[in-house]
Amino acid sequence: MTEKREFFPDGTPIDEWFYDTRIPTLEELGKPYVLTAYGILDDGKIHTKEIQRVIDLAAEEGGGVLVVPAGTYLTGSLYFKPGVNLYVAEGGTLKGSDDISDYDLKETRIEGETCLYFVGLINADGIDGFTMCGPGTIDGNGLRSWKGFWLRRKWNPNCTNKDEQRPRLVYLSNCKNVIIADLKLQNSHFWTTHLYRCDHVKYLNCRIFSPAYPVKAPSTDAIDIDVCTDVLVKNCYLEVNDDSVVLKGGRGPWADQLPENGMNERVIVEDCTYGFCHGCLTCGSDAFGAKNIILRRAKIHGAGNLLWLKMRPDTPQHYEYILVEDIEGEICHFIDINPWTQFFDLKGRKDVPLSYADHVTMQNCDCECEIFFNVKDKKDEYRLSDFKFQNLNIRAKDKGFSMKAIERATVEGVVVNGESYGNFEAD
Predict the structure, then answer these.
(1) For residue 192, which phi and psi values (nearest 5 degrees)?
(2) Cβ-based neighbours of 397, under 8 Å, separated by 6 or more
(3) Residue of 16, 55, 78, 140 with fewest CB within 10 Å of its CB?
(4) Pairing of strands 355-375, 32-34
């Protein structure tokens, strides 16, 4: 039990589950099934079928753990079964093929919709109790598809993320009681890890990376949380060429009426370090609801946006009870709330659905920014209310700070470039 009871922004107590950060040992994960014991070698060949046979064998024999030993083992899409875990040993790398034909084409969830698309390198569906851990690496090997994407974008500037067919690194759906720990997850072709309809998932001590140069790794979000509840991201290093922690859930003019969509609730991101990324905590662009979200105790080194609310004018959205606190470092935008119109499509709807963001608190931060307050007033598209800015020490090239876009705002102890804004409430 924790000594001090803590609460989510709406007053809901934070469950003890969030404070249990113990990582299982290899011995606790069950009978080991080591790749090399089954003739799978570090030989540069694709071993998808052979590795899948080992996973299936472990499941048939009552469960255990697939062990990737030292060396590099190439594979396409793999499907984990109930009772079968994954451990990547020191010096071990499970490396994805760079040929899209080594990944299966199935009904899956991607970019806010359920459609026919490519699955991930690591896949699990409907599992209660799945652990991926170890000091080793899962490498997507995405360079070939990154180059292909930018070449296609040069030929057709309007090509979408899915036009250059790319797998994700990890895709978990309908799973619960998941631990992803200690791993290096890197060089994904597309999104790095994607959770859909999962609950009670912990990311602990992971390093998630994709490069911004010399070849940009397009849309390689670190963690996409899509219609999930109770997610903890703790002590991770996040550096990707897109957003780091992204809340999704569906998009489109009737997104809130479709059963495959939903909100994200009770998400805590804490004690993480950020390298370059577009957004540290992002709501959107394929999201319509988030509640009780906490980002705290982060160190940031050159990220784009600290809190980014992407307000889609073609999607009814509601982001509420968000807390950002105890942040230090260098950031381009401290807060960014603007219309997001990429691939805008009302699909025949005549009106523009109104969206909302409310009960947002940013406090106890010491940051250097390019732009402190990048919030656009668009009351015909979205309404912002009940924001609090408390105990902020900001150095910014653009120090603009206006409550024009926000109904009911509280400002206390905000200092920008040495100038205090005093304490006030705005209607």
Answers:
(1) -80, -55
(2) 369, 370, 371
(3) 16
(4) unpaired
The residue type of 67 is V
Return d(Cα 109, Cα 170) in angstroms, integer: 12
Q: Evaluate whether 76 touches 55 at the Cβ level (below 8 Å).
A: no
Give percent of the chain above pLDDT 90.
Answer: 86
Neighbours of 75 (CB within 10 A): 23
The mean pLDDT value of the chain amounts to 95
Rounded to an integer, what distance in angstroms lies between the CA atom of residue 34 and that of residue 262?
39
Kindly provide the residue ranges of all beta strands, DSSP E only, lying in 20-80, ordered along the sequence.
32-34, 64-68, 71-75, 78-80
Q: Residue 324 has which token pair?
A: 């950002």
Q: Tokens 């401290």 map to which residue?
A: 334
For residue 42, what is the enclosing H or E element?
A: none
Give the closest residue to 194 by CA, choosing from 272, 86, 318, 111.
111
Burial 279-318 (b: 16+ CB within 10 A, else e): bbbbbbbbbbbbbbbbbbbbebeebbbbbbbbbbbbbbbb
Single out the residue of 180, 97, 80 nearest to residue 132, CA to CA: 180
Residues 6+ apart with CB under 8 A from 11: none
- Six token digits for residue 59: 């499941």
Distance CA 185, CA 412 (A): 40
Higher pLDDT: 158 or 190? It is: 190
d(CA 48, CA 370): 47
Tell me the DSSP string of 351-383: S---EEEEEEEEEEEEEEEEEEEEE---TTTEE
